[in-house]
Specification:
Helices cover about 30% and strands about 20% of the residues. It has about 600 residues and is an alpha+beta fold. It has 2 domains: about 180 residues, Distorted Sandwich (Beta-galactosidase, Chain A, domain 5), CATH 2.70.98; about 400 residues, Glycosyltransferase. α4 runs antiparallel to α5 and α4 crosses α14. The radius of gyration is 25 Å and the shape is elongated. About 50% of the residues are buried.
């Protein structure tokens, strides 16, 4: 059975990533890309579905850490006879992709086992393995080839490659696993010492570009490193997570493939990178978004492949039993075909935020205009909402708010550039959407905005209303909404997305608490001047990161453990923004919420 989600750590080369457990087992790896078929899939099944484990026998204690400022993982195993350190990393790739594992005896004498189980195609395909004298071990299936190099003697046993070896204090053993296309030659051996030096230098130079030096700087830096690890280097796309089908509720079926790029995360991701000083990464992310969203606005998708691919077929993997039995395991994500109005606001807001201080590109302005022309025709329609409900569509309040954001940001861009062509018309549509939301999305009896028009249900995404500038935090309707969410959705330090037992989202009820929602509450506390409440909430949430500083998507309140895909970019983006909201005057919350000043909102809402 796989470990608890929080017992994993990530290593990666900015093109793919692996999850390494506290037990020394790599239980998840998709090669050569994040979205390729997994060759280690034990995370969603058993060791027979693929893994690579190096660990001592009879371990008494395990501790681990990342080398400061890097994605190099160090795990120490204490045994009765000695202590061994396992160092795991993936060099930023040149031609081929490597996983390098170095095990060293720190004290005493340690007996270790190595077990390599390669199973391509999500644990289904057993490769043809050859190991000739003076040549490395190779495993081939179809287009895929994996090469193992080590000085340790290995043998094949029950369709696995295994080894038992002993290290005395000061001795070490090196293992390199390399991916290559099977129609090419066997890749050259990697200089392990040089690869470790270059990898450490690369990550430290990258994180040293971080310009934030306020409170919780180290926690912010770790989240930024995690975001970089989830970035597909060749395109600049930021993945939602490195995994698929880690359940949002124990036992499933809320299991989704998150190895794609969501437009919804765009603005918060952009602001996190920009405010930390990563202008090249934020530019790459914006360019990825512009390429992905280019074309007919009617064909705009919620999510895209890591290079902007559009086809998104969701299928189930019947031979994998799922994480701790949570089935089905899914590949692809059918949410790509849903109508979700909020993404239009995200696209336009990214362009607006990234163009502050400069004129912006003509292509970006043309895209904004085309999106607005299409959005004007469809914003009245019901959609599947931010949480991608698989039940009936409805008029989600947040979706309409983000439609307002789309018009608002284009108006501001046009005002700045003195483009008067359609300004009066756009202002009229913006006002129409605003009045529609205030009339239908606010419940007078509850004193709060609601999840969808005519509903009595709350939703954590209503906390975004002041953060995107639809209404100022001083508006009594915002204060009432925050109070209602505190009363009905808050559980200790956590905010539920919504009440799954009451909302018809097309799935059985029950899930964990979404980490990002709790950070949104902290952001609202900051806007409301409740800084001590925000600091306490942030401090308590930070304590829930795992031992190497990582967050999953959700938290299981009953079992006190992680749920959902891991590590989750949105959780780390939300954390980064909350830290900067508390530590900077020109914070992400201010940058987005400044779109509508209190005096403007007062004038606009008169009579409502």
């Amino acid at each position: 059975m796989p470990l608890p989600i929080e017992d994993y750590a990530i290593i990666g080369d900015c093109e793919t990533a692996a999850l390494v457990g506290k037990d020394g087992s790599i239980d998840w790896l998709c090669w050569p890309r994040f979205d390729s078929g997994a060759c280690f899939a034990a995370l969603l099944g058993t060791p027979e579905h693929g893994r690579w484990k190096i660990a001592p026998e009879n371990v008494k204690k395990v501790s681990r850490r990342y080398r400061p400022g890097t994605l190099i993982l160090e795990t120490e195993f204490q045994t009765e006879t000695g202590t061994a350190k396992l160092t795991d990393f993936m060099p930023i790739r040149d031609r081929h992709s490597d996983i390098i594992r170095i095990v060293q005896a720190i004290s005493g004498e340690v007996e270790l086992n190595m077990e390599l189980v390669i199973r391509f195609d999500y644990g289904r395909s057993i490769p043809w393995v050859t190991h000739q004298k003076d040549r490395p071990l190779t495993a081939v299936t179809g287009p895929d080839m994996i090469v193992l190099r080590t000085a340790v003697e290995t043998e094949g046993k029950n369709l696995k490659t295994v080894s038992k070896f002993t290290l005395k204090q000061g001795e070490s053993a090196e293992f390199t696993l390399t991916y290559a296309h099977s129609n090419g030659s066997i890749p050259r051996a990697t200089d392990v010492t040089e690869a470790l030096r270059r990898t450490e230098q690369w990550w430290m130079q990258w994180i040293d570009r971080c310009t934030y030096d306020g409170p919780w700087a180290e926690e912010l830096r770790r989240s930024l490193i995690t975001l970089k690890a989830l970035t597909y280097g060749p395109s600049g796309g930021v993945l939602a997570a490195a995994t698929t089908s880690l359940p949002e509720a124990r036992g499933g079926p809320r299991n989704w493939d998150y190895r794609f790029c969501w437009l919804r995360d765009a603005t918060f991701t952009l602001l996190a990178l920009l405010n930390a000083g990563y202008h090249a990464e934020s530019r790459d992310w914006q360019n990825w978004l512009l390429r992905a969203a280019a074309g007919n606005p009617a064909q705009t998708q919620v999510l895209y492949g890591i290079e902007g691919e559009r086809p998104m077929i969701e299928w189930e993997v019947p031979w994998l039993p799922g994480y701790q039995g949570a089935a089905p395991v899914r590949v692809g994500n059918a949410a790509a075909n849903q109508l979700q109005l909020d993404i239009f606001g995200e696209i336009v807001d990214v362009i607006y935020q990234s163009s502050k201080g400069n004129e912006g590109s003509e292509a970006a302005i043309d895209l904004q205009t085309a999106l607005l022309d299409y959005l004007e025709k469809i914003w009245h329609e019901p959609d599947s909402g931010m949480w991608e409900f698989r039940g009936p569509t409805r008029h989600f309040t947040h979706s309409k708010v983000m439609a307002w954001v789309a018009f608002d940001r284009v108006i501001k861009t046009a005002e700045k550039l003195d483009l008067n062509g359609s300004l009066d018309h756009w202002r009229a549509v913006r006002e129409e959407i605003f009045q529609d939301v205030c009339r239908n999305g606010f419940d007078q009896e509850m004193g709060s905005f609601v999840q969808s028009y005519g509903s009595k249900l709350l939703d954590a995404n209503l906390l975004l209303i002041p953060l995107v500038g639809f209404l100022p935090h001083t508006d009594p309707r915002i204060k009432g909404t925050v109070a209602a969410i505190e009363k009905h959705l808050k559980r200790g330090d956590f905010v539920l997305r919504y009440q799954t037992e009451a909302a018809d989202d097309g799935l059985p009820p029950g899930e964990g608490a979404f980490f990002a929602c709790s950070f949104w509450l902290a952001d609202n506390y900051i806007l409301l001047g409740r800084h001590q409440d925000a600091r306490e909430l942030l401090s308590n949430l930070l304590k829930l990161r795992n031992d190497v500083g990582l967050f999953a998507e959700e938290y299981d309140l009953e079992h006190k453990s992680f749920l959902g895909n891991f590590p989750q970019a949105f959780s780390h983006v939300a954390l980064a923004n909350t830290i900067m909201n508390l530590g900077r005057v020109d914070s992400p919350a201010v940058q987005r919420s400044e779109a509508q000043k209190p005096e403007q909102a007062d004038a606009t809402t008169k009579g409502n």
